[in-house]
Known about the structure:
The strands form 2 sheets. The protein has a 5-stranded mixed β-sheet with strand order 3-5-4-6-7, with helices on both faces. The protein has a two-stranded antiparallel ribbon with strand order 1-2. The radius of gyration is 15 Å and the shape is globular. The model is unreliable at 1-9 (pLDDT under 50). The longest helix has 13 residues, at 133-145. Helix 1 (37-48) links the parallel strand 4 (30-34) and strand 5. The protein has helices at residues 37-48, 67-72, 90-100, 122-128, 133-145, and strands at residues 7-8, 14-15, 22-25, 30-34, 54-58, 78-81, 107-110. It is an alpha/beta fold and 154 residues long.
Amino acid sequence: NGACANIETDCGRIFEKPAEWEVIKTGNKAVVFAVGNRMNGLALKTAKKFGDGVAVVNARSVKPLDNNTLDMFNDMPAVTLEENFACGGFGESVVAYYAANGKNKKTVCLSAGDEFCEHATVARQLEMCGLDETNLIKVLNGILKRKGVKKCST
């Protein structure tokens, strides 16, 4: 209906479509699709430790998916990063998209899981769910090891 045709972001960029995602760091071995400000910050901070190996995409919307951006990274293993439930979440949608398009793609979905998370500080809850730098480095090291990339440490 055109109601959301041009959206201006805080940094002044104008996106033509609400579902248009943003590549915030280029990379050539793996990609992290991150949802939300906190997860984008984590992804970017961690990816920088891998040099040119890891790309980061700010998934500005989870529905609809940005098929054009997903297609740009068809040939790279992916990590999805979200502070939501795993079942029915963003990561599951990304995996379903690649499967429906015939891509047998290695994708690791990091999320808050589907279990109750005990009361704690936000940082501790994220750590308990594996949504922290230590775990993201571990996951990326595992993916990149298979692609012959030097490991990164915390």
